[in-house]
Amino acid sequence: MLKRFLAVGCLVGLAACSDTQAPDIGARTSTSAALKQFNSCDALAKALRANLKEEARTTLLQFLDDRYSGLYGRAEDTAGFETPSSASADNAARTPEEGVDYSGTNNQEAGVDEADFVKTDGTHMYVLNSQSLYVIAVPSFGQLQESSNIAIEGYPTAMLIKDDIVIVLSTVYPTSLTDEGLRAKLTGPTESSFRTQNLTKMTFVNVSDRANPAATREIYIEGYYQTARRIDASARIVSYGYIDTSDVYFYPKLPDTDSYSGSDAYRDAVKNAVPATIAYNERVIADKPLRDFVPNIYERVGGIIREHDYDDDDCSTFAIADDSYSRGLTSIVSFDLNGTGFEADHIVTNEGQVYASKDTLIIAEPAYQSWWYYANATAYDDSTNIHRFDIATPGITTYTGSGRVAGAVNSPFNLSEQNGVVRVASTSNQWGRWWEESPPPVSSNVFTLSGESSLEVQGNITGSSEGEQLWATRFVDDKAYLITFRFSDPLFVVDLGDVARPKMLGELKVPGVSTYVHPVDPAHLLSIGLGGTENAVDWGTTQISLFNVADSASPLLSATLALNTAGSWAWSEALYEHKAFQYWAPKALLAVPIGSYYYSGNYHYVSTLDLVAVGSDSLDRRITIDHSAFFDDASDWYSDPSIRRSIFMGEFIIAVSDRAVTASRLSDGATTATIRLPGTKFYYGTRAPGYAD
Length: 693
What we know:
Blueprint: E1 35-37, H1 41-61, H2 89-93, E2 113-114, E3 118-120, E4 124-129, E5 132-137, E6 145-151, E7 155-162, E8 165-172, H3 180-185, E9 199-206, E10 214-222, E11 224-231, E12 234-241, H4 264-286, E13 297-301, E14 304-308, E15 318-321, E16 329-336, E17 342-348, E18 353-356, E19 360-366, E20 383-390, E21 398-406, E22 415-418, E23 421-428, E24 443-450, E25 456-464, E26 469-476, E27 479-485, E28 488-495, E29 503-511, E30 513-521, E31 524-532, E32 537-548, E33 556-562, E34 582-584, E35 589-600, E36 602-614, E37 619-626, E38 643-649, E39 652-657, E40 660-665, E41 671-676
Parallel strand pairs: 15-17
Antiparallel strand pairs: 1-15, 2-11, 3-4, 4-5, 5-6, 7-8, 8-9, 9-10, 10-13, 11-12, 12-16, 13-14, 16-17, 18-19, 19-20, 20-21, 22-23, 23-24, 24-25, 26-27, 27-28, 28-29, 30-31, 31-32, 32-33, 34-35, 35-36, 36-37, 38-39, 39-40, 40-41
Helix pairs in contact: 1-4
């Protein structure tokens, strides 16, 4: 629910351009990140036409700049939505409790459940595999029995579960649609194209009868799935994309010529084609209706596709930053799972990061795309818009203000909200400024922002760890832990107790680099990353590190453990996906999936789950769960043969790979139950569950 109104400003008009060195693109300024709501659909269409026109115009003018001669070419640039043994008496006598009896998804924030392709409620497991949802009963910890499965349209990526409702999120490609009615609605600018390359589908499955799950609702939104969160009975699904504009040219429409790129004749052809192409685009864009810019939502009701479009409706659910030149849209679809309706809000943004606490959702988007900086880059540095939304009311998302910070935000873990204060870690100059003789070095920043109706910077640390990239961040209470990297891996501790005066407390340099940081207790952190020496990183070594941060001014490295398979390299999905990292505090055990392969006549896959005992100053590998045998078929090519998720249940560990779900004893690793899965074969255009497009 967006509460502000837009005064649509003029965008830059077409400037005459005859200077082949530096075309005049006109004035372009940076003002405010504040979102302004549209008071009419005509205003929305006008703004989106202007943004598309300006992006295409500026991109085309670069072809007249000799510095960009490498861009000369004729490749088409089309845009689109891209796009066992018995349980204890206690277990039998009461309903298992998450966090006490079993582990759930490794979420960034407590109480904010994140969608994933494996879920459990303690008595059943829910697994997405091979375009189906599998329901697996857990009669007692250590036992597994398949209850049922139900086919899911498209390629299921993740799900949320609340009591007897499972929301399965899948990617549906228009080319694979069998519903001719929906397929027809997706026709693009030409008969052979589609409005979008991806649909995000939300399939509501009633599992009150676990043996007979039933799909009760099907909703599609144009765009690709980004993320989803559930807080109690309130669920929000976030997607992003922009509608296909293959009828608009981002390169000169050149006549047929034998001239080679870079020749005088070719340059003359480009010089003449650019203004002609700009004029052509203006005519095409001027005739584009609103539906050619905004994502539609479709719902299947009684077997019939119902379209929720915006051509004749109120467009107050759309908003744009005051100085935005974007034409992509972030869509937030909000559900109160105790009701039947939903709310959809759409923000014109660049593709960004999404974070949620229990009552606040944040979208962090680059203030501008790369094309905006052309002929403007010396005046402006990279920056990020921070948009805040109140999500305390189930099913309602209300905009409450925006701010802007220097640098780029590359992960949801770069974001945090506590007691109304938004904390941000960003990276400045991460891509370098190649056009400058002495570009500023890459560096890291920390900001605190707050305010009732806007987000104003209250305090900051800027320009720290020059020359080093920010690889991992974790906000814990009033501290921020930053991992940067060049050759060694500094851990920085930042005190955020005084919002207006954040300060650097301590620093520790260790070899290698960490990519994810996990709080164990107030005095300890775990991390996973890559091993290395003082001068280089070892990309084939997956390493666990344990830090003692009891003294914030003097953090210590207590232990490290390399998890390589014998005599080989190894990697782990947990290096880049925190949901694959499972620390179980009641047992002080860490489960980390490890994968590798070797060739001996055929490819042989190594698919294991290492259980590591975490002491106050030690890391000890205890047992290894092995799924390698499930992938020992040389005739198949697997999208991912690794164990990908794990769940602790009492005295057992559940391991989930693409081919099996197993239960094993924590004491000795012995397998107590196995459920075979069909697995996901990899073909072009498909994704295994858990991988968003």
